[in-house]
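Figure 2 data, in text form.
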Amino acid sequence: MSMASLQASTATNFQRKRLMGFTVPAVILIYFAYIFVVFDMSGLAERVSIENTRTLVSDAYSYKTHVTRDNRDGGVSIAIEGERKGRYAEGTAPEWVALGTETLVDLGDDHIVTFGETQVTYDIPGYGMIVTEPGRTGVNATFPTDEIPEWINASKNRVSITTDAGRLTVTRNRSEVFRYAMGWELFFFTLDSPYHGMGFGTLLSHAANGEAGAIWSDFWANKMWRHADVAWALFETILMAFLGTFGAAIIALPLGFLAAKNFTPLGGVRFAARRVFDFLRGVDGLIWTIVLSRAFGPGPMTGSLAILLTDTGSFGKMFSEALENVDGKQIEGITSTGAKPLQRYRFGVIPQITPVLLSQVLYYLESNTRSATIIGAITGGGIGLLLTQAISTQKDWEEVTYYIVLIIVMVMMMDTFSGWLRSKLIKGDEGGH
């Protein structure tokens, strides 16, 4: 090649690289600009509610006690999270509520709500006394100032006041106070349990005196947090992942032989087997869940079948590729001993693919444990169902946090167990993962 041709070629390569250097960033910039416009990123700040976010986060680690008065008959009820299972017995109340002809609710920091005979008042330090009078015509409210602050929402039929101490809502038929407190109230024992409010040392003393079974029974049968139901839901989730994963592995192994060219010389059979694998793994597990739930109804078995179908396609492809890469010399050695075909597969093939098989199956098991949570939410089984139920109520976000924590712990345990089992069965290590 002449010097001129070499220089021309170098110049062309330089021009091409420079063009690519400008083109690639320009394409990326245009793509991000497209995303910014299509997804309306500029309006995101307007749609985000800081107040709702703060309330959601606080609900994750706190609980609220409802103090409710029926404005029609004057009856007052008090309940944790407003649930019947967390209701105080009639005539009893927490120490910050004073029952009587007038009910006084101390929200702390000198915030006092009073349920009078006809009026409901809220004394707010630094602002003044808000007086409301619910009746048939609506809610008549009087405020200390002419200009109503943004943390008060007032209309003819409803007055809602939200402060750092709590919240008061007054309608024609009902007046309700929310008081927030840190922690997960009634997590161990409900209000009707004789062990509610006991310290750890006192509980140990009762347990030592022969009440350990009763203490455990009250905790396990907790009607608010449903520990027994949650434990069973976790078991169902793990069971769905286990049955689906190992069921798929059992089915995919013989089918993998049909798709491997060194075991199935007929091209038509191999083609059919591979297309079956493509079809099964090409449809997402959630889609299979919806289809199967229409056919078999909701339940953990439907979730297991959905995982089984998807993983059969994935395992079949991986197992067939592993079979195509086995060492033929080992098979020839087994054949020279007069072994039959099944014996050749058992002693010449299976030992070679076992590490790959176990590694993939155990990896999918831990992955399917996470997937089973979402699948369970659709098919009506496992911890996923409890999670969606808690989210749909939009009030018990501490329960949502509890379930999410349990899901994370479950996945971590499955990951640890899977890693330990892989090291034992494949690497032969004595130590854990």
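Caption note: The longest strand covers residues 62-70.
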